[in-house]
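We include the pair:
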Amino acid sequence: MLYTRQYYREAAEALDEMISSLTYSEDSKSIGRFSLCYTIFILSENIMLTALRQQGVKPGETRKIIMKVVDETLDQPRPHILINTKSGHLCDKLKQKEAFRAYPEYKDLLLSPTSRVSANDVWKEVVGQYFRYSTLSHTWEDGGEPEFRNVEKISVHSLTESFPHTKLQTFCRKTHEHGYWWAWSDTCCINKAEQEMLAASLRSMYRWYSDSSLTIVHLKGVHLPLEVDLTTLLDILDELLQEFVNCRWNKRAWTLQEYFASRVIHFYTEDWKPYLPIRCPDTNPTNHKHLRAIQRGMELVTKVDANHLATLKPGYGEARQKLSLASTRDAYKKEDIAYSLLGIFKVTIEAIYGDDEVPRALGRLLEALLTKSGNVSILAWTGKPSEYNSCLPAEITVYQVSESLHIPKPIDEATLAPSVSAMHSSMSSADIESAVRLHDRLLDVQPPGLQHGRLTLPCISFPLDSIAPGPVPGTYTATVPMLGKVEIETAEDLPAARNMRLVHPWFRRLLDPDIPQSGPARRDSALKLLASLRQPFGALLLARISHEYERIAANQLITVQIHEEVSAGQLMENIHVLYIR
C-alpha cells in the first residue's frame, strides 16, 4: 500500500523490518513467508528501477537535477543577500544553496524516485517553497539601523537590545512563524559600501517586493485601536484610522513603492500586534491589503479612491497621478525622493548620492520619464525651476494637484456640437481644409524629448509684442498677438529678458489619432480640434538666450485664450520645435 502511494522510503523501511523479523524467526512457516517476501522485494525493486529507466530518470541523476532546479531558482531576479530566519545569519546565494542541502524535504526528494514528468513539478514546488522570502517595510530610526557591516559576521538574534535591533529580530521571528526560511530588510541586506551593489539594489527593489511572498509592515507610532462592535464601526472608522493615516510610514518616499509593489501585506503595530481597526476572534486575514479598513486608510492618506489605487500599475502610465502620490512624501536622503519612484515608473537611471546630486536626481528621473512616455503634462507646474532643466521643477511638491490647470480640459460632445455646427456654417471650404491640415500637421509633430538636460519641445508659439511692469512688484502685463493682454506674476526681472514667447505644448491631448482619411467625419474632427484649441490653457513663458530658450518660472498660472478670429492657418504658421535648456 505504501508503495502504491509512492511512499517509497517508508515502503522500503517497512519491508526491511519485515524481512529482518522473519529472518530471525524459528517458525518454519515464517521462514517460508520470508522466502516469499524476499522474492516480492526483489521483484518490486526490479519493477521500480525498470519503470524509472523507461521514464528517463536514473536514481543517480536525481541530486544533479534537483540542484539544477535550485540554480535556476536562484538565478531569478531576487535579493542577493537574505537573512536565514532560523539562524539569523546573512546568506548570499551560495550559502542559501548550501542551506538547502540540509533541508529535510531535500533528503526526501533524493529518496523518492519518480518520473521525469512529475519530478520537475515536484522538485520545482519543493524548491520554490523553500526559497520563498518576506520583505520588511518600515521607517528608519534617526539614531541608525543595523547595517550590513554590523551583522555580516554575527546572527541578527545576537544583536544588543535596542529598538532598531528588536524590530529586525521580531521581523525575522514573524517571518519564520509564517513558514518562511528567508527574510530581506533594506537595513542590513545591502552592502552599501559597494556602489555597484547599492545601485543594482535600488533598481531592483520594486521587483523584490513584488516577488516576495509576504511584506511585513511595521507601523511605528501606531497602536492597537480600541475594540468596537460592527454596528458603530462605520461611524467611527475614519477616527480609528487617524493614527494610521498620520504615522511616519505614510509620509516616507520608499514606503509608497513598497505598498504598491507588495502582493501580500501584513500590518503590525509598534508593539508587533496585527493592526486592524476592528478585532474579531475569528479574523485572521491572509492579506491586509484587501481589507476594506486598510483600503479606507489609504484613501484618507492619498485622497484617491481605493479602486483607482488598485488599478495603478508600474510603468509610465498615469504619470501625474503617481507624481501626485509621491509629492507629499519625504526621504532622509533627498535623492531618494526620485530613486524610490524608479520601480513605480519602470525607468532606469544611475543612483548617485552627494550634495551635487540633490538638485539633479528628480530632474534625471523626470527626463527618463518624459523621454520614455512623451507625457508633456510633466511640464505643467508653477514654482521654482530645476537646475537640471528650466522646464522641470526643483521640488516634487509642485505635483500635489494630480491634474494641472495648465492643460485644457476636453469639451463634452453636447457643448462641442453647436460650436462645430456654427463653424460649418460660418467658415469657407478653404478655411475648413486649413483646419484639417492643422490637425494633420500637429498629429505628425514628434513627441517631446529630454536628453542630457536639453528639452526638445514641439509647441504652438506666441511671441510677446511688449511687456510692462504691473501695479504690484513682480507682476507684468504683456501684449501678445492672437492672445491679447496677458497677466504674468514672476520673481524674474522680465524687462531685462528679450525674445520672449508664450507656448502651448498641450495639443496632443486634443488630437483625434483615428481621424478618417476623408469625408464629413474628418472635417468634424479637425473643427473639434480648432474649437478645443480656443479654450483657456496655461501657457509656458520662455525667453530666448542665444540659440536656445529658457523657461521663466511663474508664481501663478499664466492663463491665456486664443481669440475666436484666429484662423487655423495662422496657428499652423506658429507651430515650432523649440530647444530649451
